[in-house]
From TrEMBL:
Protein name listed in UniProt: Lysylphosphatidylglycerol synthetase
Alphabetical UniProt keywords: Membrane, Transmembrane, Transmembrane helix
Domain of life: Bacteria
Transmembrane stretches, start-end: 12-32, 52-71, 128-154, 166-184, 210-233, 253-279, 286-312
Key word Transmembrane present: yes
Length: 323
């Protein structure tokens, strides 16, 4: 029996896994050393000056990061349970591995395919939809709390908004969407119509109790990394109340989530939005950029390094049982 084709296939499979990890690390390195709005040397000096690198601060931030990802992994384990039961170890492998694999894809769209390939072909469509639900629940929390926060932020700081132009733009946008809907509806293929129906059927028949748990886990995640941001504000000596900071933080996450971007560039988007919003609280740019960078390192870079381990150890499943 000729084993050469199999060995060649294995070689290319290993090469692909290594490429994913190396590209992810390169993007992280590039962003750290080529950030035009923030210099890494200045960041280290500024952080040291404010005693950020104390053991107590690092440990507390690591604990918050741990619970942030603990609830993300638990959410995934819960949401996938109506399709197939998996243990926490496999949920961790899938969550962190897919996160690393999706770093250089727009809006982390690569995560959908990355999570699906942990399963056999018969389950992959359902896994894609479960991941859609997971991200949708997290986005709904961002939208709900962000809208509330932005409303009170605008009210508090009397930001001048031309509401007539805003309403005009909103109506124009809705009209464009309606026209596009009818045009697409006329030309949509039968296959796409069936696919859309399958998505609706999947979501409508998905256990409501599981969706509720997913919503709660998404909320807990949001509260944890929002508090982590506030904690960093206090570490860097800013005098701002929690409620005042919270409405600014929620506004920042909402506005940053609207902008389509590659995940690795998330630091640049959040940084620019945060600098603008926190300027109303009279918090200087260096402090804000330092906090955004630290949040990025703890909640983005650290999990991606852990996820690279699972990417390198990945093998295609041979059976549908993942427990």
């Amino acid at each position: 029996m000729n084993t050469r084709p199999y060995k060649t296939k294995q070689f290319f499979f290993v090469l692909i896994k290594l490429s994913i990890v190396l590209i992810a690390f390169y993007f992280i390195y590039y962003k750290l050393v080529n950030n035009s709005s923030f210099n890494i040397n200045n960041f280290i000096q500024f952080s040291s000056k404010n005693h950020f690198f104390s053991l107590k601060n690092i440990l507390f931030l690591l604990i918050l990061t741990f619970f942030n990802w603990f609830f993300e992994i638990t959410k995934w384990q819960k949401l996938v349970s109506p399709i197939i039961k998996i243990n926490f170890k496999n949920a961790t492998k899938q969550s962190l591995g897919s996160f690393t694999a999706s770093l250089f894809t727009p809006n982390r769209i690569g995560e959908y395919g990355a999570k699906a390939i942990f399963y056999t072909k018969g389950l992959r469509k359902q896994i894609l939809l479960a991941n859609l639900l997971s991200n949708g629940l997290q986005m709904s929390i961002t939208a709900i709390l962000g809208t509330i926060g932005l409303y009170f932020f605008i009210k508090e700081y009397s930001i001048d908004i031309n509401y007539s132009n805003f309403i005009y733009g909103l109506i124009s946008g809705l009209l464009i969407l309606v026209i596009m809907f009818f045009l697409i509806r006329k030309n949509v293929s039968k296959t796409k119509a069936i696919l859309f129906k399958k998505i609706i059927d999947f979501l409508s028949h998905f256990p409501k109790k599981i969706i509720f748990y997913g919503f709660i886990f998404s909320l807990l995640r949001y509260l944890i990394f929002s508090f982590q941001f506030y904690l960093l504000l206090t570490i860097f000596g800013t005098e701002v109340g929690y409620l005042n900071a919270f409405k600014t933080i929620t506004s920042m996450y909402l506005l940053a989530s609207i902008v389509p971007t590659i995940s690795i560039l998330d630091i640049a988007i959040k940084g620019s939005v945060a600098v603008y919003l926190f300027s109303f609280l009279e918090i200087n740019e260096v402090t804000v950029l330092a906090i955004v960078t630290i949040m990025w390192l703890f909640n983005f870079v650290l999990p991606s390094f852990l996820g690279s381990y699972y990417v390198l150890r990945f093998n295609f499943p041979k059976t549908p049982v993942q427990v």
